[in-house]
Write a structure and sequence with these properties.
heterodimer; A: mainly alpha; MetI-like fold; 0% strand; B: mainly alpha; 2 domains; 73% helix
């Protein structure tokens, strides 16, 4: 009897502690999540306010109507976001296709063949990843000028393809897990190396390619530093990120319109995130992301 | 003529060699490697070499160049704006450490059984996917007098008069920027840590549960040892990360009111003032620090983890793991905090 009572007491003690811990756990999660969303929520609230409403009410009071999309239309027009989305789409498509082809080919050769310089090339790429992009632009700018790449879409695209080295690591890691016996049996059947790469290994590489596309895609879409440096002709060459620069200067305090523009610009990222959450997390967990 | 035929007889002809396996291999290696290498040299190693060269010249992007020796490097330590910008990295280092602690705490909680963990994870992570310029606007708005942050603080009972101007007041504005940086990158680091925790064998937790270990003990004895490598790495990286802090001050304050970090000042000197030589010297100086940190990090991992897992891990496996850890800076240094 006594032993049983004791046992119950122990259990109760444990659960009291457990409850406190659970409450703390959820409270801290809710608090951090609140901090994470509040800057964005305030933007959404403000984006739906009319000019008069924006001036007369506190930023955190709800808008009169959640259907007031006037700010979004105005922001889209003012920042010429139609053009911006088109440029960004072109940049994304070419950069992604290009860097996937280049990256998988390089990874294939580095993983499957032993040749003098293999290790050296790997080290060259690793070392390159150490150099901070912004410091490098001091000198890259001069090279872009000499190549006549400044203010051209193709120049920017080629540069963006050339500076990505991280997805190569995802591919090499993935190639390491594809058995060499696949290659060997194809060689016996008389396949050329190019056929082995394109017909046999590339399709098997699909998960790695999807991860690389998502991460590289998000980075390319969000890239603004090089875009503002090399695509200075904003009338023609604005990307979604740099189109937001329209709202600096005289428009700088019309926050209801600015917030609408900001929300438009991050919608594609939000959609990508909702659809591909799992791949994004696993890509980052693999240490495969370059901010 | 005679020697020629002898050579042909001795070796295969070029055409034959091309058809052989060895020849095909060489062709595919060259074909697949030439473009990436060309890009790498054009956009990384050529500018790198140029930058070192530029740092000894007084020059603009166009026009005459004058060799000045070490003058640019001397100016680096003589100019007040540059020296004071270096001090700012301390703010970002503290921010980075807070961020690591917070991310570690969140990752630990979220890898246990938690309701709606996917939602929490998503909300905390999403800021990482927002483009830099949008971040700039969001936080200019957030910190404006009487706007979002002030309103939230007023909800908590603060008086507006007692609150500072978050982006103007020099005693606080760097912390405001560090806060926005933590807001942006904490979720990413959390996901990184969750990945590391998830790679721990599940049966360890079950065994610990059966043995009656509480959550804190589980954290201390199971989770922490298994993610020690990645946490240490992130702490080391926060040093280089905070030295190269750029985005928050660049997009939010544009370096005004004493918020210009080393890279923001460098960016202005290079692209606005066109003092390319001085900017190059700054870049080279920072690169040297980053290299030193990287070497220290490699040495650290070589010695600190030499005896870890000695019992249950073969040498080659350990080597591979350490190598993987050493390759990580690639991923995180570029975070550009």
């Amino acid at each position: 009897m006594a032993a049983q009572a004791n046992a119950v007491k122990v259990k109760k003690h444990y659960s009291a502690k457990f409850i406190i811990w659970t409450v703390c756990k959820y409270l801290s999660l809710i608090f951090v999540s609140f901090c994470a969303v509040i800057p964005l929520v305030s933007c959404v609230i403000t984006a739906f306010k009319t000019d008069a409403e924006y001036k007369s009410t506190n930023v955190m009071t709800m808008p009169q109507s959640w259907f007031n999309i006037g700010n979004f239309l105005k922001a889209f027009q003012k920042a010429d976001m139609g053009l911006a989305f088109m440029n960004s789409a072109i940049i994304l498509a070419v950069v992604l296709i290009g860097s996937i082809i280049i990256g998988t080919q390089l990874a294939y050769v580095l993983d499957r063949f032993k040749f003098p310089g293999n290790g050296l090339i790997r080290n060259l790429f690793t070392f390159a990843a150490l150099l901070p992009a912004i410091a490098m632009q001091v000198a890259v700018y001069e090279i872009m000028v000499n190549l006549n790449f400044v203010n051209t879409l193709y120049g920017y695209i080629i540069m963006m393809m050339g500076t990505d080295v991280i997805s190569i690591y995802i591919f090499i890691q993935y190639f390491e897990n594809l058995p060499v016996s696949l290659d060997e049996s194809a060689i016996i059947d008389g396949a050329s190396y190019f056929t082995i790469y394109s017909k046999i290994l590339l399709p098997l590489l699909k998960p790695a390619i999807v991860t690389a596309i998502i991460l590289k895609g998000a980075n390319t879409y969000n890239e603004y530093y090089c875009a503002q440096l090399y695509l200075q002709d904003k009338a023609r060459l604005r990307t979604v990120a740099t189109s937001l620069y329209t709202f600096t200067g005289p428009l700088g305090n019309q926050y209801n319109m600015i917030c609408a523009g900001v929300i438009i610009s991050l919608l594609p990222a939000l959609i990508l995130f909702v659809v591909c959450q799992k791949q994004i997390y696993s890509g980052i967990a693999a240490g495969a992301v370059k901010g | 003529m005679g020697t020629n035929t002898a050579a042909v007889a001795g070796k295969k002809t070029f055409g034959q060699w091309l058809k052989s396996r060895k020849g095909q291999q060489t062709v595919i290696i060259i074909a697949f490697i030439i473009i990436p290498l060309l890009l790498l040299f054009t956009f990384t190693y050529l500018p790198f070499a140029e930058m070192v060269k530029f740092s000894f010249y007084k020059m603009k992007y166009v026009g005459a160049r004058k060799f000045v020796g070490l003058d640019n490097y001397r100016a680096l330590f003589a100019r007040k704006d540059i020296v004071s910008s270096l001090k700012l990295c301390l703010y970002y280092m503290v921010g980075a450490l807070i961020q690591i602690a917070l991310a570690l705490y969140l990752a630990t909680i979220l890898s246990m059984k938690v309701k709606a963990s996917g939602l929490f994870k998503g909300l905390i992570f999403f800021p990482y996917l927002i483009n830099g310029i949008a971040i700039g606007f969001i936080f200019k708005f957030f910190y404006t007098r009487g706007f979002v942050f002030d309103t939230v603080l007023q909800w908590c009972g603060f008086q507006l008069d007692s609150l500072p101007y978050w982006l103007k007041d020099q005693s606080i504005n760097n912390w405001s920027l560090v806060g926005s940086s933590v807001w942006r990158y904490c979720g990413q680091q959390m996901v990184l840590f969750i990945g590391a925790i998830m790679s721990v064998d599940d049966t360890l937790y079950e065994a610990a549960d059966l043995d009656g270990a509480n959550k804190f003990q589980q954290f201390k004895y199971i989770i922490l040892p298994s993610i020690k490598t990645i946490v240490t790495l992130n702490i080391i990286l926060s040093i280089t990360g905070s030295l190269s802090a750029f985005e928050a001050p660049f997009v939010i304050t544009d370096g005004a009111n004493g918020t210009g970090t080393f890279f923001v000042v460098m960016n202005t000197i290079a692209h606005t003032n066109q003092k390319v030589g001085l900017a190059s010297a700054m870049a080279v100086f920072l690169l040297c620090i980053i290299f030193i940190c990287t070497i220290l990090q490699k040495l650290f991992f070589k010695f600190a983890f030499r005896n870890m897992h000695a019992d249950d891990e073969s040498r080659s496996a350990k080597k591979k793991r350490v190598k993987a850890a050493a390759a990580q800076p690639a991923a995180a240094v570029k975070g550009g905090r």
